[in-house]
């Protein structure tokens, strides 16, 4: 099939490349001429493991091309995916659909007489598919097209695996012609027996938001349990395992930490909350999740300040990790950003190191030092904060760190270390929810 993907960001570029790898002919479109120029040279505008190789293979095979010419790509394609950004609208938190509608108008201008399937892959509020259809109908009253919702569930850092081996594919349709075309688009995954769920368009749109809100709720739940653990003297890791082994709960998304961030959960929970309020059906659980998570990021800075004895004024703090999760260069809504800002407000001097995220942070924090290595970042620091669980941070040489740091303090916001291991190396250690039981186990109590 011939497929056009409008928007070549994290989702568009990965989806387009994987569709090409399925054997389709794909035109990846972006209005950002610099991005397209990079891609044409074989350079990646984003960091995503395995992507460069897959792009190279499919470009060489002639199945994947990059262009800024939306009209040309759309006129040649049988299926057009809209994968542009849907950030929070400034001021009210609704999803900002300006890019989706701008792309729709451009698509409308390029639709000819052949039947086309226009698919929203971007995360869009319920009813957006109806609006896209209306816009297209205004532009092309006699056009032959179907509008489909096919939300994407890939995770940055594991995007290619997620796209090729998805837990499920959600396809919202309003006509049977669209079903046949979408079945063809995803044929290789049908053959792999991936669950493909056809449903009505509005249901598909809401499924994406409901999934993200549920996952955000799970994270927020364990974060609040973590706070309670600190007060009562228990380790949240033990509780997470204790509840996660229950199949009805599941072990995933039970890692206590600095609050959820990234390009999806914060904006999607907010947008769902706004949709529900507009329909006079407030989602009180989601509203609480949003409020609790907002407060959490800054409270992590207070944790750092407390571990430093109550003040960070004039002190050098080393931040390991800037991206919102490992294996991506994406820093959108990363908890590290709020923590850094709060520490700067408290008078700290920040040195930071991240394997992939530093370039994006330079403009946001011109006043901080971006260190070339973990060691350079930690040298002379009064405290080391682990803000992202990159593998490179999982086996730190604490004996060496102790020699080069000004004081031995570690604040592990991702709980990647066992508190006792770090304490044995001579550090003051603070994790998230790693309360210590006030009871000393005696021979008598263990025997009992
Ligand atoms: P992104 O910002 O990385 O990419 C969007 C791209 O669209 C940009 O390159 C931009 O230049 C381009 N664009 C915007 N308007 C255009 C137009 N009219 N014509 C051509 N190009 C245009 O965004 P993203 O992270 O890929 O997210 C895209 C959508 O997918 C969002 O709705 C997001 O919520 C959803 N989503 C994202 C993820 C993720 O992990 N990033 C996962 C699932 C779903």
Short description:
This protein is an alpha/beta fold. Helix content is about 45%, strand content about 15%. The protein has 2 domains: about 1-195, Rossmann fold; about 215-445, NAD(P)-binding Rossmann-like Domain (Rossmann fold, 3-Layer(aba) Sandwich).
CATH-defined fold name of the largest domain:
Rossmann fold
Mean pLDDT over the residues: 96
Rounded to the nearest angstrom, the radius of gyration is: 24 Å
Count of distinct structural domains: 2
Q: Give a list of the ligands.
A: nicotinamide-adenine-dinucleotide
Shape: globular
Decide which structural class fits the backbone. Answer: alpha/beta
Could you list the spans in which at least 5 consecutive residues all have pLDDT below 50? none
Could you name the CATH homologous superfamily of the largest domain? NAD(P)-binding Rossmann-like Domain
Oligomer: single chain
CATH class of the largest domain: Alpha Beta
Q: What share of residues are in beta strands? A: 5-15%
Distance between the termini: 69 Å
The largest sheet, given as strand count, sense and whether it forms a barrel, is: 6 strands, parallel
Shape-level CATH architecture of the largest domain: 3-Layer(aba) Sandwich
Q: How are the SSEs ordered, and which strands pair?
A:
Blueprint: E1 2-6, H1 10-21, E2 25-29, H2 33-40, H3 51-60, E3 64-67, H4 70-76, E4 79-82, H5 98-110, E5 116-120, H6 128-139, E6 145-149, H7 159-164, E7 169-172, H8 176-185, H9 187-191, E8 196-199, H10 201-232, H11 236-244, H12 265-278, H13 284-307, E9 316-320, H14 335-345, E10 349-353, H15 358-361, E11 369-370, H16 374-378, E12 383-386, H17 398-404, E13 409-412, H18 419-424, E14 428-430, H19 443-447
Helix pairs in contact: 1-3, 4-5, 5-6, 10-12, 10-13, 12-13, 13-14
This protein binds nicotinamide-adenine-dinucleotide (NAD).
